[in-house]
Amino acid sequence: MAEAQDEDLSEGTLLSHLVELRTRLFWMFGAVFLVFLALLPFSKMIFNYVAAPLVSVVPNGELIALSPVSPLTATIALTFYIALFVAMPVILYQAWGFIAPGLYKNEKRFAFPLFATSVVLFFVGMAFAYYVVFPLIFGFVSTFTPDTVNYQPDMTEYVSFVMMVVLVFGLAFETPIATVLLVLTGITTTEKLGKARPYVFLGAFIIGMLLTPPDIISQTMLAVPVYLLYEMGILMSRAVRRSGNDVAEDESNSV
Q1: pLDDT, tens digit, for every residue of 119-177?
Q2: What secondary structure letter does DSSP report for 152?
Q3: Chain centroid to CA 144: how far?
Q4: In whole angstroms, what is the distance from residue 37 CA to residue 132 CA?
Q5: Distance of alpha carbon 102 from its chain centroid, rounded?
Q6: Fewest 10 Å CB contacts: which of 27, 189, 231, 252?
Q7: Residues 103, 184: contact at Cβ < 8 Å?
Q8: Where are the alpha helices (DSSP H) in the chain?
Q9: Which residue intervals of 129-189 are DSSP H helices?
């Protein structure tokens, strides 16, 4: 009889989690969809703004559409990606709300600041790619364009390129969060991270070579921030560890 009650309880708990997951997924997709609908009337303005770094170095100041439906598909796709990025705080908040009940009290103290910091760093990485990296890349490429070549990239290819680079830089700027999580979970320590600096420096350039376009500017512009953010992650890990030790001492003293 007791086993049946335990089984009913576990099933009820699992069902409640599934219902909550469905509700939070609904809010995630709903947020993206509503932002997409709100941005849709401004899709042309969004594309013109995103294309500005490339258009500024194109001789005629215009991109081309190789497909009859490219003006529609490229513009709609870009608007959807922007809606996804804009709705990212809501998505992460819903994810946080789903996993928060399963965390201990001391873990919750660090989890929410880490989530908030991850959102800020992701947007900083996107802004860094758009305002710093793109002008350098396109300016560098345009200088190598022969006079006999009409340099007019395709708008669909440009959207794919931009979204790929922006996503790479957004995720790369999450390096401090990944470093802190590695320390908090006990996988490594700040001392080991400090000793691994030469390998991380070399690995940052290898990652930049693999994930960015084949030019030295974009590779360096990714590798250098990743290494600096790695150093930032070590400092954050030390601060979080000291704070955790202080909390543990206070709890032991209160007992």
Answers
A1: 888 899 899 989 988 888 888 778 877 878 788 888 999 999 888 888 888 888 888 88
A2: -
A3: 31
A4: 29
A5: 24
A6: 252
A7: no
A8: 2-39, 43-55, 70-86, 88-99, 105-128, 134-143, 155-172, 175-184, 190-195, 197-211, 216-254
A9: 134-143, 155-172, 175-184
**How is residue 64 annotated by DSSP?**
B
**pLDDT tens digits, one per residue of 183-225:** 776 777 878 888 888 888 888 888 777 766 666 777 787 888 8
Report how far apart, in Å, the C-alpha atoms of 219 and of each of 95, 123, 152, 195, 204 are: 32, 20, 24, 24, 9
Residue position matching structure tokens 């500005």: 52
- Whether the CB-CB separation of 44 and 92 falls below 8 Å is answered with no
| Angstrom distances, CA of residue 48 to CA of 71, 75, 158 | 12, 10, 12
Q: To which residue do tokens 């860094």 refer?
A: 128
